[in-house]
Amino acid sequence: MSLQQKISLRKALIDGFWSGLLALVIFGPISGLVLQGYEVRNELIRPLLMALLVGGGRFLVSCFAQSEKGKRYVDGLAGKRGAGVTVASLKKGKYQYLVIPVLILAGLCLPFVLGKYWLTVVILALIYVLLGLGLNIVVGLAGMLDLGYVAFYAVGAYTLAMGAQYFHLGFWTLLPIAGIGAALFGALLGFPVLRMHGDYLAIVTLGFGEIIRLVLNNLLDITGGPNGASAPPPTLFGLEFTRRAKQGGIPFHEYFHISYSPTYKYIFIYLVLFTIVCLMILFVTRLKQMPMGRAWEALREDEIACRSLGINHVTVKLSAFMMGAMVGGTAGMFFATYQGFINPSSFTFFESALILAIVVLGGLGSTVGVIIAALVLTILPEVLRDFAEYRVLMFGIAMVLMMVWKPRGLIRIKRRAFNAKGVTS
Amino acid sequence: MDSYIIGQQLLNGLTLGSIYGLIAIGYTMVYGIIGMINFAHGDIYMISAYLTAIILAVIFSFGVTSLPFALLVTLLLTMVITGVYGWAIERVAYRPLRGSTRLAPLISAIGMSLVLQNYVQVSQGARNQGIPILIDGVVRLGGEEQFVQITHIQILIVLASFIGMGVLTYIIQKTSLGRQCRATQQDQKMAAILGINTNRIISTVFVIGSAMAALAGVLVTLNYGSFDFYIGFIIGIKAFTAAVLGGIGSLPGAMLGGIVLGMSEGLFAGFVSADYKDVFAFSLLVLVLIFRPSGLLGKPEIEKV
Question: Which among A39, A81, A399 has CB closest to B100?
Answer without folding.
Answer: A81
